[in-house]
Amino acid sequence: xxxxxxxxxxxxxxxxxxxxxxxxxxxxxxxxxxxxxxxxxxxxxxxxxxxxxxxxxxxxxxxxxxxxxxxxxxxxxxxxxxxxxxxxxxxxxxxxxxxxxxxxxxxxxxxxxxxxxxxxxxxxxxxxxxxxxxxxxxxxxxxxxxxxxxxxxxxxxxxxxxxxxxxxxxxxxxxxxxxxxxxxxxxxxxxxxxxxxxxxxxxxxxxxxxxxxx
Length: 214
Description:
Blueprint: H1 2-16, E1 34-40, H2 55-66, E2 70-74, H3 82-96, E3 100-104, H4 107-112, H5 116-132, E4 136-140, H6 150-167, E5 170-172, H7 195-209
Helix pairs in contact: 2-7, 3-5, 5-6
């Protein structure tokens, strides 16, 4: 499948790319404003695009127009693993005090072939930390190309559904679902979604995120 080859290359670049700084520095919110905190990798950090073109920023624009009293903080870092997210989560929660946390990590773990249990433990740590801070959680899943073998790819995908069920989080099973088979949805590097595809990702994530903002 085209998405499988593209995803494998995307993850390879994300793994070896020098991590970029998270885009979480924002002005202090107005009193009473609730925050959506996004913890992701290059797919959430608008790799190759202006930050304003990424699905997270587009989601922030939509929230600003349709959900008064909410804002979005993007703390995503290109190349991030679940271990990195687990190490950062406490500080991000303390800094932003979010009402909703979107966890969109795990793809780089899969590329490295890290033990599924290790990825699960890291994701679990993030979920528990967010819930302990009274935040709702949206877990955003990813899939691995079939060349990683059926046991690993199946177990990798199940990590997200099992954790979501165990901790009763919202779940989006596969971030790239709307563009997975569309070659034209990717930049010239065959790796990262183009600006127009970010709109589809925004709409896809919105189906799981919007109910948490009510």
